[in-house]
Amino acid sequence: MGMSAEGERAASPREEEWPEAEKAEKLARGAALKWASGVFYRPEKLEGLGQYRNRERQRNSSIQSRLKSTVQSYLEGVSAGLEQLRSAAREVQNVSQDLGAARWALLDSTGQFQGLQQMRALMAEHVQLASVVQVLPQLFSVHEVFSHTLQLLCEQNLLEAHAELMMMEHLRDNILSQLHLRGLSSAQATVLSYFSGLQELNESLAKQLWDIVGSSLQLVRDDPVLFVTAVRIIEREEKIDESLLLEATFLPPGRPKGWRQKFYHVLRETITGAHFRATPMDAEGSGLARHLAALQKDIVSNLLVVKDLMVQCVPAHYNILSICTTTYHQALTSHLQDILREDLDKQALFLLLEWALRVYPSPDMMGHPDLLPEVDVSALGPLMSPELVDQTERKYVVKVKASVLEWMQKTLEVEFKEWFREEEPETDHQGFFQSALPVIVMQMLNENIQVASLITDSLQQKVYNMALEELEVFLGRLREALVQCGKEHQKDRTTPKYYVSYLLAMLNNNLALSSSVSSLHSDTACREVPASLQAALDRTQKKTCQLLLEELLLDLQPLCLQLPSRKWLSGSQLVSSMCEVIDKYAKDFSRVGKPVFMLLLTESELLVTSQYLRALMQKKMVCKSNEERRQLCDRLLQDATQLRELFCGLGLDRSQQSLEAVFALRELICLKDPALLSLEVLGFATKYPDVSDEHISTLLDLRGDVSKEVRHMVLEMMAQHPQVLPESYRPIFSTILVPAPELPFCIRKGKCA
């Protein structure tokens, strides 16, 4: 027990000292048990236990041998390291002793070092005095050199003058640099004052240089030597600037000069001022055209000089042709924007668009063969931005629209002024009436569209859309003028004398406009006539036809007022007179194109039918006997047959006529048995669904033999069988108003009883 307790006490420190070893041993034992239980889980496996034991024993022996070898090597290395540490400690101790001795020796020599410090100060002063002695001759000659340099500048000996100027600047800068390094900044003001003439020389030289650069285009033509000299001086100064900036210890006053950038600036200002800052020019018409032509000529000429001459006078890295090309491009862009701020007319706007989008990149200007391939106009970008082009195009369209509006108004005034001439309108090769109106209008619109197509497709489309809109507005004003002329004619039918002929000419004009609209656009895919414009054309045709039919109605009304009457029943020539009137108008209608002629014929037939039926329903006559009803039936048959044959002879097929309504009405009158009227009326209402109770009641009154009971039965049957108008049905009765029924009694004006 005592031993086990001591063992536990002995193990406890080890466990606390090597917890990882204890943990590793437990893991190893657990792994071994798991392996053994897996291998010997069957009794027959125990036969190989001896082999496993021997193999594991050999492996353990091998592992122990390697561990011993490794530990031995580690111990030998540790021993060698400890020996080296002991040797290093001894050497450090020796060095420390030597340093202590040196420190005491230095302390003993302090007085001697103070003498050396005085000698160093004297030496520095001697060096400074020696430097001053060396530059004294140059310092004494500074003002003389200034005068000589100024004289050289006046004589335009620029290279010599610049050489002396550089020498003086170098002398000054060296002195200032020495003062700067020694911290004598207070003395710099004296030096700068002594060399103050350098500033004047610099300014004088710079002025001459920039004057030369400003006239460089002329100089390289006449005598490039002066320009080359100026470029050489500028490059010298650039190299001095670069070397001073690289040292970055001391930067003399006035540095860097940046004369190369100044060269570019002066060149750009010269180009801009020569062409784009002149006195204000006339921005209208020929003045703008001359200005743009002059710009085109000067720019091409100057760029050719730069490409052929100036490029040879400057270093390649100047990219002088690219600089000049870009400067012209940017200046032109700004110049065009300034011009566009003015209130320009359509001609000026067109000139600017054409010049910027067509002339500028063409071989006549920036694409000139002699400028290629060095000048690539595509790399410069557009002269006018897409937004500015769109804005300018819109301004142009507004101006063109105002012009088109004015011309159309004048055309309309001239057109209606011709209506009051004492002669018929002109005719074409087919004998159709016409006037110059559609030709003038379409030619004006087409010319504007064609002119716009010379610029861009977008401008062409804008003008095309504007043309269609203005044509639609024009048709509206044309209809208003037609209505006004119709009102004047109603007051006095003798003026215009050839009112009907000019209305027919207007119908032909409308047809001509309708057929010409699709040809306005060059692209066949975009030739579809907008629905609103087609509707305007249709309304114009409808209004003109309406005026013609009103004229026909005025001639028919006196004849229709005589229907029905006893005289008419006995064999009047009223319908023959109506046929003469209709035939006369039909001959006039034949002076228009066939589609419109057939339309007029159809509408005339419907008008005659409705007027004939309206006359019958005015309650002017009531049949008093069967004989009168028979006479009425015969007269209706004769009249309807005569009218039908007339319209058939004019070319209107029976299936297209509405006179069948007169024949159907005759059947209602001819019916001998009033009791059968309900069925006949029902059939009549089915065939003509727009007939009303009032119409039927009036027809029953015309018969004169219908009792109240039969009338009630007929009207009740109609109420029980309401009719719906088919979509393709042409109304006949809905346009006929029936007079209000007479009151059965009237009230006298006297007092009531």
Automatic annotation (TrEMBL):
Q: Which GO terms describe its cellular component?
A: exocyst; transport vesicle
Q: Is Metal-binding included in the keywords of this UniProt record?
A: no
Q: Which GO terms describe its biological process?
A: exocyst localization; exocytosis
Which positions are tagged coiled coil?
none
Taking the first listed entry, what is the main subcellular location of this protein, grouped into a coarse class? cytoplasm
GO MF terms here are: SNARE binding
The UniProt entry, under InterPro entries, shows: EXOC3/Sec6 (IPR010326), EXOC3/Sec6_C (IPR042532)
Leader peptide range in chain numbering: none
Its annotated compartments are: Cytoplasmic vesicle, Secretory vesicle
Chain positions covered by the region annotation Disordered: 1-23
Key words of the record = Cytoplasmic vesicle, Exocytosis
Q: Give the UniProt family note.
A: Belongs to the SEC6 family.
Query: What is its quaternary makeup?
Result: Interacts with EXOC2, EXOC4 and EXOC5; may be part of the exocyst.
**Could you tell me what this protein does?**
As part of the exocyst, may play a role in regulated exocytosis of insulin granules.
Q: What is this protein called?
A: Exocyst complex component 3-like protein
State the organism of origin: Columba livia (Rock dove)
Q: What is the lineage of its organism?
A: Eukaryota, Metazoa, Chordata, Craniata, Vertebrata
Gene behind this protein = EXOC3L1
